[in-house]
């Protein structure tokens, strides 16, 4: 008999090498029983950066425009991010951070002050604009000393991509960075965009080879989750009529060898509209569970950028701007949470949970399908104002980054559906929080404020 997927759960943390990068995610096995207001009220920050509960403090460890260790400047628009253990020093961790920039580096606040690449070979720059200037998007890698709370080094680790928004860590100690764009040659760039790239989390911060993982599809990618046991990659799409995808790799440790892309559908409800915007199209209530199926996709790099349209026509479920995504271990097995930024009748956001089948990705999956549950749906801006990046915290809850129209908060959501503020952006610009993640030992939360471009390390009684 083929072994059950859930029977491998207990061994997920015994995987070699890169699996340790998942400890900060998998440690949040289930939401704690205590309420979301466990940390108390927020205390105004006298420096006007970030309000936190009493007992917590932050330190700015990366700032846009500052010189990096490689002589380049830290790019603007810090976004999705993950923390990995440093295999050369157990007291340090490695942060790989996206920068959501799309134009020429010398114009958009990218790492290059001019058209000069410094020590970066041109072959390690994915693309250039029509005037031969490297595109500004990509990733930086920052080595951080947890004990001293000091950054050790910061370097450019992927360059020449566009609109690197979110992504996700893999069990191999790599970061999947996602382009949230569908730019094509003739639109100011030299190559097609809308792909996922893999960046090793190296303490040296050496630039990664810019190889697009084309079998993961060409669309407005947002975030990914890689199941540490099966190697299946789940992906969100930041479109008002976006889909949820999964990628079945031919070789889980070598994503560049390709695989099969599928999209999520609901059993018995073809082309289900799960945005809850239109009553005549059907709605889902909080706590409702739906059985799922997966639809194969063809021509996944089509230049027309119509993958989601063809997927919906084939029966895929439609979501409202799928953004943040994270992995957690529930009482009965793995759970994959994802945020839909403007889902719900108030257009303020939804949190969904997909629970994979015990036979996920296998031929017998249909006999015991995965399920999808609407976990939370915001009714007021004061509760949750447009959820974006999310992460499972060591304390047993979700941390949600807001990208709303008013004050920007980090929110806590517990298993009972209770929500409370964890932090507030106290800066005048009120830019979005993004990239929330935890150090491998769970002692430090890292989070970005996209504008003016800051990474903060937050410590406290997590």
Q: What class do helices, strands and sheet pairing give?
A: mainly beta
Residue windows where pLDDT falls under 50 for at least 5 positions: 1-33
Q: Percent helix among the residues? A: under 10%
Distance between the termini: 43 Å
Number of helices: 3
- Order of strands side by side in the largest beta sheet? 11-12-13-14-15-19-18-17-16
What fraction strand?
A: 35-45%
Rg calc: 20 Å
Task: Describe this protein's structure.
- The chain has about 450 residues and is mainly beta.
- A hairpin with a 6-residue loop joins strand 11 and strand 12 (about 235).
- The strands form 5 sheets. It has a 9-stranded antiparallel sheet with strand order 11-12-13-14-15-19-18-17-16, with no helix packed on it. Strands 1-2-23-22-21-20 form a 6-stranded antiparallel sheet.
- It has helices spanning about 25, 105-110, 305-315, and strands at about 40-45, 50-55, 55-65, 80-85, 90-100, 135-145, 150-160, 165-170, 175-180, 195-200, 220-225, 235, 245-250, 260-265, 290-295, 320-330, 335-340, 350-355, 370-375, 385-395, 395-400, 410-415, 420-425, 435-440, 445-450, 455-460.
- The protein starts with about 20 loop residues before the first helix and ends with a strand.
- It is built from 3 helices and 26 strands.
């Amino acid at each position: 008999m083929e072994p059950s997927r859930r029977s491998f759960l207990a061994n997920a943390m015994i995987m070699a090498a890169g699996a340790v990068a998942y400890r900060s995610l998998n440690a949040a096995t289930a939401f704690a029983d205590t309420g979301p207001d466990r940390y108390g009220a927020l205390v105004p920050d006298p420096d006007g950066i970030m309000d936190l509960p009493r007992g917590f403090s932050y330190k700015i460890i990366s700032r846009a425009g500052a010189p990096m260790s490689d002589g380049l400047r830290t790019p603007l628009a810090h976004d999705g991010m993950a923390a990995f253990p440093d295999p050369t020093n157990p007291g340090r961790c490695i942060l790989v951070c996206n920068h959501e920039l799309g134009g020429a580096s010398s114009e958009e606040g990218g790492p290059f002050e001019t058209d000069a690449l410094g020590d970066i070979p041109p072959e390690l720059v994915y693309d250039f604009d029509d005037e031969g200037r490297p595109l500004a998007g990509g990733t930086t890698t920052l080595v951080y000393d947890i004990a001293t709370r000091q950054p050790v080094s910061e370097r450019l680790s992927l360059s020449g991509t566009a609109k690197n928004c979110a992504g996700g860590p893999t069990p191999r100690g790599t970061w999947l960075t996602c382009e949230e764009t569908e730019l094509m040659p003739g639109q100011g760039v030299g190559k097609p965009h809308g792909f996922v790239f893999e960046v090793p989390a190296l303490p040296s911060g050496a630039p990664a080879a810019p190889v697009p993982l084309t079998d993961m599809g060409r669309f407005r990618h947002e975030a990914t989750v890689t199941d540490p046991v099966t190697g299946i990659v789940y992906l969100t799409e930041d479109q008002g009529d976006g889909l949820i995808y999964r990628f079945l790799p031919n070789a889980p440790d070598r994503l560049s060898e390709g695989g099969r892309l599928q999209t999520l559908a609901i059993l018995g409800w073809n082309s289900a509209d799960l945005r809850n915007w239109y009553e005549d199209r059907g709605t889902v209530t909080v706590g409702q569970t739906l059985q799922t199926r997966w639809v194969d996709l063809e021509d996944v790099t089509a230049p027309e950028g119509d993958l989601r349209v063809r997927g919906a026509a084939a029966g895929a479920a439609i979501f409202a701007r799928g953004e943040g995504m994270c992995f957690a271990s529930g009482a009965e097995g793995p759970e994959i949470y994802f945020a839909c930024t403007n889902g719900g009748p108030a257009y303020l956001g939804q949190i969904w949970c997909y629970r994979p089948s015990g036979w996920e990705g296998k031929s017998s999956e249909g006999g015991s399908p995965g399920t999808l549950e609407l976990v939370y749906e915001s009714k007021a801006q004061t509760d949750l104002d447009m959820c974006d990046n999310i992460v499972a915290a060591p304390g047993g809850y979700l941390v949600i980054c807001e990208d709303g129209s008013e004050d920007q908060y980090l929110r806590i959501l517990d298993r009972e559906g209770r929500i409370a503020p964890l932090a507030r952006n106290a800066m005048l610009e009120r830019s979005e929080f993004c990239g929330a993640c935890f150090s491998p030992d769970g002692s430090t939360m890292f989070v970005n404020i996209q504008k003016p471009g800051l990474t903060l390390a937050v410590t406290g009684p997590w």
